[in-house]
Structure formats: C-alpha cells, structure tokens
Design goal:
The chain is an alpha/beta fold. The protein is 20% helix and 23% strand. It holds the Pfam family Metallophos.
Length: 281
C-alpha cells in the first residue's frame, strides 16, 4: 500500500526533501553554503491550494539554508483539470520564504505563456515578475549578483526563460534568454551558480559556470523503469532529473512540486531540494 501511495497519492498531498551534497575545488568557494530550492509550483485548485503552498514554505524555511531559490512556473495553467489561484494570493504566501543571504528567483515558461500581455508583446515582463518582486523575491532576468558576506566570491546568475514566447512546438518557442549578456557580467575567478528554468542550456555552458540549477521537466512527471516517455527537452532523458555531471560542470534538475497539463505524477514525488556545497581546497 505504501508503494502505491508513493506513486499515486503522494503527488497530491505531500512533498519530500531531496538532499544533494556536492564538493568543489575552487578558490572562491571558501566555506560551506546551503541552498533550498522550490520549483514548478503550478499553484491552482484542486491540487496545489494555498494551504499546501504554506506547508511548502514552512518546510523550506525550516531547512538549514543560506539562500533560497525559486526556479519558475508559479501558477497552474487553466484547463479542465485545474484552475489557477489569484496571483497576489500565491505570491503573498511565497513571500514568506526567507534565508539569511536572500531569496532569489527566475521566471519559467508558464509564467510567460499564461500572461496574454507579454505573449502579444504589449508588456515587457509578466505580471508574475512584479508580484514576486513585491513579495520580497529578487528576480534575475539575464542578471548576476554577487552574494554578500560570508559568501562573497560566489556569483548567482539568473537566465531569462528559453521558451518565453509560445510557438506551435518546442522548436518554435522564442526565448528571452541572453546567455552572452549574462556571462559577461560574471567577474573573473568567481564561483558561479546559474539559475535556468529549462535545463537544456547546460549543454552549451562554459566550464566557468560550475553549477546550474533547473526545473521545468518535473522529473518527467511520469517515470517508468527509470525512464520517461515524454520529456520537454531537446535532449530527452539526458537532463530530465537529478544530478548530472559533464566535464567540470554540474547540473541539478529539480522534479518540482506541481503538475503541468494533466494532474498526473507517477514515479516522481514532488520535492523541495536542499543542496550543500562544500569546498575541498
């Protein structure tokens, strides 16, 4: 019964905390840093009500963390299975996220797609961006910040969404990402953490971006025998979930918390990610 519960019932009533411990030999990573990650809420009724979001925030705030990150996709898309919640109600709750060195975020594709004014190019950024900023999150759109002491030397970058303007297929979506602009802002010698909602950008990142944090895939949302039949990525299962290492670069893909399109998760329990970075030098 517990196995059935984990696969079918858990996606609608509970979350897990997934732990990652990574070690880096880098002169700018001088102390251990802990990061809590919330991604892909898709807030809406009946599966992600405000009461559940409050619990997610409380669980996240109870973790030992220097920084908390939100990796995009705030609200649920309106369809026959679910209806989104009022935006300000959701951001008021998410605004209770806290961390000693700050709470930061990037936008996801659904934050763009569900905003008609940005899709028809009459508004620069989705309303979600202003609402999250007003709630206390520092949103990064092709921007970089240097974390304050005692983590100075660690850079946090936020890439614009790679599928911001919706097309007829993934190949025809148009992005707001400007990787060249973002990388140009990174100081020489910094230890760099990049927030990118979609993980596909990882394939073309230079090695000076040591760590990339992504969501978007929901871990595949349906996972059978360690594989996912449909993944919203040009790389299939390569970047679907978890810790990926290519050369000297590391990628963490969160399975997220909510559901997209259909309220179905199988083999992928909703998660909050807790990440510990430890210097080896």
């Amino acid at each position: 019964m517990s196995r059935i519960s984990d696969y079918w019932i858990a996606p609608y009533i509970k979350e897990t905390v997934t732990l990652y411990d990574l070690s880096f030999d880098h002169p700018s990573l001088r102390r251990e840093i802990t990061i809590a990650i919330v991604s892909d809420l898709h807030a809406g009724l009946p599966f992600m009500p405000l009461s559940r979001i409050r619990r997610i925030v409380e669980t996240t705030n109870a973790l030992a963390r220097d920084v908390t990150l939100f990796l995009g996709d705030l609200n649920a898309e309106a369809n026959r299975f679910q209806r989104p919640l009022p935006l300000d109600d959701v951001t008021d709750v998410l605004g209770s996220l806290s961390a000693p060195l700050g709470v930061y975020g990037v936008l996801g594709n659904h934050d763009w797609w569900d905003d008609p004014a940005t899709q028809n190019r009459t508004q620069e950024l989705p309303s979600v961006a202003d609402s999250l900023s007003a709630a206390g999150l520092q949103m990064l759109e092709n921007e970089v910040i240097v974390l304050p002491e005692p983590c100075r030397g660690i850079v946090l970058a936020g890439l614009g969404d790679q599928e911001a303007y919706r097309g007829d297929s993934r190949q025809t979506h148009v992005g707001r990402d400007d990787l060249t602009k973002t990388l140009a802002q990174i100081p020489d010698g910094a230890f760099t953490i990049l927030m990118a909602h979609e993980p596909d950008v990882f394939a073309k990142l230079p090695s000076r971006v040591q760590l990339t944090l992504s969501g978007h895939t929901h871990g595949g949302q349906v996972r059978l025998f360690g594989r996912t039949p449909v993944v919203p990525s040009d790389f299939g299962n390569r970047y679907v979930y978890g810790h990926v290492v290519e050369g000297n670069k590391h990628l963490i893909v969160s399975g997220g918390l909510g559901c997209s399109k259909a309220p179905l998760r199988f083999g992928v329990i909703p998660e909050i990610v807790h990440l510990t970075l430890t210097p080896t030098n």
